[in-house]
């Protein structure tokens, strides 16, 4: 059987909200419904032609189980369309696109919605103590956000890893990444995001969100909340290292780490031979993808083995790539990955990396990040007439994922 090419159509995203910020009143299922409505309207797809809906979410909840299907129904779209949920942590959004592409390539579907959503502002606290009752003593409530990071790998095998910050500090030590270099990279990210907003680079991909108010008309949320246009070495340098009390050499601060955020993203993944019939215009083709595991205590290095595996499988290399989008979990993590790739401090390839900012400046709404990156990369590849773009991310628990996309026109 010959595989069909999988086209990426109408990649969209909402603006990214801060933790407990503008999007906090909307839970994940509602955010998902908003992006799905917008995708159907802007692409012009007949929703009855959609074969499946795949949504990623890093912090799934019983409030909206199988959130791809839940949000589709909440959007008032056809009952006959099924949907499900996928979780590969930070790689979840890209995985939803890959899953959709595999369905299309193999003929299992012609049109699949792929996307992701996260409302980190609404991630719940929970307990594992009450199923069989508590006769005496205390009950523990876990914050799913922090607990998910602590339990991202089996403690019995790897010991306690306090969270993702610890993994970034490990890489800073392993690769000799300084606080100054980390802050300088973070300033770059914020400045590039601010410049992109000033130049209107996100306009075509943005879906404004109406925030209901207790009184009066809804407030329209139409701009990312997290980037700092005034970021400087002085302002970031004044921040304390998060683990500074226990590690005098710590480099990670609130200013050079990714944020906790709320957002949604989505696109259509369509079989090449159905595009004309459906009146759809592709932006990208999925060219290839790979995932790889790594030491959970150094999870941030995941893009290095993932990209290496992808290049080996595809027969491609850095000379073929014209744009790179990396999720920016932490500045020292990014700099360690660049060293792992063999990029020097003055490597010209750095000019094609995260050209409009990324997780440090724009935010990292876990399940929506892959789609946010894809939307930005797709539009930037069109502007720059880049043929091949690479999307890659590190993944909590010790993984990396990468995919190559080809510009369609």
Structural notes for this entry:
The active site is at residues 90, 364, 394. The protein has 409 residues and is an alpha+beta fold. The chain has a domain at 6-121 and 259-407: Peroxisomal Thiolase, Chain A, domain 1 (3-Layer(aba) Sandwich), CATH 3.40.47.10. The chain is built from twelve helices and 14 strands. It has helices at 28-43, 67-74, 92-105, 144-150, 155-158, 164-175, 179-198, 233-237, 275-278, 303-314, 331-340, 366-384; strands at 6-13, 17-18, 52-56, 83-86, 111-119, 125-126, 142-143, 209-211, 219-221, 261-271, 284-293, 323-326, 388-395, 399-407. The strands form three sheets. Strands 1, 2, 3, 4, 5, 10, 11, 12, 13 and 14 form a ten-stranded mixed sheet that branches. A two-stranded antiparallel ribbon has the order 6-7. The chain has a two-stranded antiparallel sheet with strand order 8-9. A hairpin with a 7-residue loop joins strand 8 (209-211) and strand 9. Helix 1 crosses helix 2 (67-74), helix 3 (92-105) packs across helix 12 and helix 6 (164-175) crosses helix 11 (331-340).
Distance from N terminus to C terminus (CA atoms, Å) equals: 26 Å
Q: If you compute it from the alpha carbons, what radius of gyration comes out, rounded to the nearest whole angstrom?
A: 21 Å
User: Overall pLDDT, averaged?
Assistant: 97
Output the CATH topology of the domain at 6-121 and 259-407.
Peroxisomal Thiolase, Chain A, domain 1
């Amino acid at each position: 059987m010959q595989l069909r090419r999988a086209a990426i159509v109408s990649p969209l995203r909402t603006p990214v909200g801060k933790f407990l910020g503008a999007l906090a009143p909307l839970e994940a299922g509602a955010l998902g419904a908003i992006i799905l409505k917008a995708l159907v309207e802007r692409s012009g797809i007949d929703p009855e032609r959609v074969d499946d809906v795949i949504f990623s979410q890093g912090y799934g909840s019983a409030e909206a189980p199988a959130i791809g299907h839940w949000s589709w129904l909440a959007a008032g779209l056809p009952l006959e369309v099924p949907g499900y949920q996928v979780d590969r942590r930070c790689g979840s959004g890209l995985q939803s696109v890959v899953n959709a592409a595999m369905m299309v390539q193999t003929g299992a579907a012609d049109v699949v919605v792929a996307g992701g959503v996260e409302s980190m502002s609404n991630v719940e606290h929970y307990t594992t103590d009450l199923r069989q009752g508590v006769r005496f003593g205390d009950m523990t409530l876990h914050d799913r956000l922090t607990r998910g990071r602590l339990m991202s790998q089996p403690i019995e095998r790897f010991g306690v890893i306090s969270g993702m910050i610890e993994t970034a500090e490990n890489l800073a030590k392993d690769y000799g990444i300084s606080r100054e270099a980390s802050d300088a990279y973070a300033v770059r990210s914020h400045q590039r995001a601010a410049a992109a907003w000033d130049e209107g680079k996100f306009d075509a991909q943005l879906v404004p969100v109406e925030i209901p108010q207790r009184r009066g008309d809804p407030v329209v949320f139409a701009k990312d909340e997290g980037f700092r246009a005034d970021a400087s070495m002085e302002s970031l340098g004044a921040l304390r290292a998060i683990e500074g009390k226990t590690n005098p050499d710590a480099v990670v601060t609130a200013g050079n780490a990714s944020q906790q955020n709320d957002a949604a993203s989505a696109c259509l993944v369509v079989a090449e031979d159905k595009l004309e019939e459906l009146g759809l215009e592709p932006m990208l083709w999925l060219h290839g993808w790979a995932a790889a595991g790594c030491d959970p205590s150094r999870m941030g290095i995941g893009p290095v083995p993932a990209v290496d595996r992808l290049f080996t499988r595809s027969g491609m290399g850095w000379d073929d790539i014209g744009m790179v989008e990396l999720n920016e979990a932490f500045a020292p993590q990014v700099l360690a990955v660049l060293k792992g790739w063999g990029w020097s401090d003055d490597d010209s390839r750095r000019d094609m990396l995260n050209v409009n900012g990324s997780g440090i400046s724009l935010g990292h709404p876990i399940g929506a990040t892959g789609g946010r990156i894809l939307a930005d990369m797709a539009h930037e590849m069109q502007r720059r007439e880049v043929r091949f773009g690479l999307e890659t991310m590190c993944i909590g628990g010790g993984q990396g994922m990468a995919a190559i996309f080809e510009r369609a026109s």
